[in-house]
């Protein structure tokens, strides 16, 4: 079943057409990496899903309920972490989450236990330390705790890792991955390695449409362009080797890059046999598989 469906959704700002047509769904339980270049329309799409932005035509359903601008009942099952979460810095996390819980109607008798449990989930200490002293990573994790307060079926995170250092990013991605199976997660980013690390499904937004919506495994099969990379001790040796290999390689200084279609074993064997016979010994031979970055470049160029 799909937790989120977009049907022929279009959106312009003035005469600028941002979303030409979005028509896709996200299956329940997946972690969906929503990627696109700066200004592609990721935030706009998320805001439309949340009923925070008008839709010019088409419609969106969350958990089978239609989204309405300004007063969307569908939001009852959504948790949202905006790209720049705002806090009352003088509060400590428990005070802040109590305020959020009261505003969103979490039952009072449940709230205190829920907050203790959530602070544990996001690995924040339960003490009186004010949010003003928090690192960006800690603030993002507090943002997730806030987004999880209402037991959402769908968690939406807008570029949650872009302002974090590598350690903060890694911890945050681990946290999202630890929620796998408990809810559906959509997170937008332009950090492709983050998508590769935790997503089961990927959507690439480009030129106002979703050019790709599939599992990473399927994409890697579909866009498969495996290569063998050979390094030689000099540019001259690489040149000689390329002549021997009937110029089938692309030469980059002392490196040869060869596309292959058949099995890796057969291709590498045939290349090595030819080179060994002529005494042109490579320093290294590597098999290079298609990365998500290669796929993204191919889809968006
Ligand atoms: N309220 C608005 N009024 C006018 N233009 C807007 C408005 N909101 C967004 N835009 C424009 O719509 C386009 C898409 O913006 P959006 O923030 O959705 O992209 P994005 O993919 O999230 O980008 P980024 O990765 O940089 O955050 C941009 O050109 C932006 O300037």
Automatic annotation (TrEMBL):
Domain of life: Bacteria
Entry's Gene Ontology molecular function annotations: ATP binding; ATP hydrolysis activity
SUPFAM superfamilies given in the database record: P-loop containing nucleoside triphosphate hydrolases (SSF52540)
Domain ABC transporter: 4-232
InterPro entries: AAA+_ATPase, ABC_transporter-like_ATP-bd, P-loop_NTPase
Pfam families according to UniProt: ABC_tran
Family note: Belongs to the ABC transporter superfamily.
Name assigned to this protein: ABC transporter domain-containing protein
Higher taxonomy: Bacteria, Bacillati, Bacillota, Bacilli, Lactobacillales
